[in-house]
Design brief:
By secondary structure, this protein is α+β, with helices and mostly antiparallel strands. It has a 7-stranded antiparallel β-sheet with strand order 3-2-4-1-10-9-11. Strand 7 and strand 8 form a beta hairpin. Helix 6 crosses helix 7. The longest helix has 18 residues. GO terms for molecular function: hydrolase activity. Keywords: Glutamine amidotransferase, Hydrolase. It is an enzyme of class 3 (hydrolase).
């Protein structure tokens, strides 16, 4: 359906994880091993942060990621301590640049893998719940962007996990009124230049795959001659749809209904429970 990864740590070339790993994001765009679809060729996007407090940069395209020469040049040139990359497999919305992830608002970037089932039935009700002050910033037609702006409406900038829980709860509450069963399936990532907030959740408890890296310090001890591990630093952290390399002890699957917050080497996990609105 889609594949994504998010990184925080020492500045590294985006090329390292997008192109150069054994099972890189480019490889996943053609040969996903764990996704709902094998090929993810309906566009891509990267978002990254430079200096502290600077608004994030973004590059999106409707081209298949494996066939975009500019992406290869950009990934080789960009060094960043915090970035996200996404390859898209469209569900029910058009292949157009405004529908490519990551979505952006001020300091925030957001990506999603999954879907809101029967989104065409729920779309109007969900969009009416978005803060009118944010409404003009919506550019595309995807369920993913609606999820992002609902989270912004419910306080993403103040309490990210609680805002995502409210977003999920409102979607499930709205779907129940329309008699849509198991409406939400998602792995999502939101970042603001300081932290990565990632969630794995689905209404039917059969979420899309999501993993995180284990200790880079431990990996450096196991593989002391791997320059990519050394460059990332001991506090580096990756959240991703599929492992990039088949290194023992390198990856751990994120449990169902779990949120992870990664901030400057501090990694916190907590249960993710949708909050219904009164």
């Amino acid at each position: 359906m889609c594949r994504w990864l998010a990184y925080t740590g020492n500045p590294i070339q985006l090329e390292t994880v997008i192109f150069r790993s054994t099972h890189s994001l480019i490889d996943q765009s053609l040969h996903s091993r764990m996704g709902a679809t094998t090929t993810n060729g309906d566009g891509f996007g990267i978002g990254w942060y430079g200096r502290l407090y600077e608004a994030p940069f973004r590059y999106r395209s409707v081209s298949p990621a494996w066939n975009d020469r500019n992406l290869r040049e950009a990934a080789r040139a960009i060094h960043s301590p915090l970035f996200v990359a996404h390859i898209r497999a469209a569900t029910e919305t058009p292949v157009q640049e405004s529908n490519c992830h990551p979505f952006r608002h001020n300091q925030w970037l957001f990506v999603h893998n999954g879907l809101i089932r029967h989104f065409h039935m729920l779309r109007r009700d969900l969009m009416l719940k978005i803060d009118p002050a944010l409404f003009a910033s919506i550019e595309g037609s995807t369920d993913s962007e609606v999820m992002f702006f609902l989270a912004l409406t419910y306080g993403l900038q103040q309490d990210p996990v609680a805002a995502l829980e409210r977003m999920a709860g409102v979607i499930e509450q709205t779907a129940a009124r329309h008699r849509v069963e198991a409406p939400l399936n998602m792995t999502v990532c939101a970042m603001d230049g300081e932290q990565i907030v990632a969630v794995r959740y689905s209404s039917e408890r059969q979420s899309r795959t999501l993993f995180h890296s284990t200790s880079f310090k431990h990996l450096h001890e196991l593989y002391p001659h791997d320059p990519r591990i050394a460059a990332a630093g001991e506090d580096a952290f990756l959240v991703l749809s599929e492992p990039l390399v088949d290194l023992p002890d390198a990856w751990e699957e994120i449990a169902e209904s779990t949120a992870i917050v990664a901030r400057r080497g501090d990694i916190r996990q907590q249960a993710f429970v949708p909050r219904m609105r009164a």
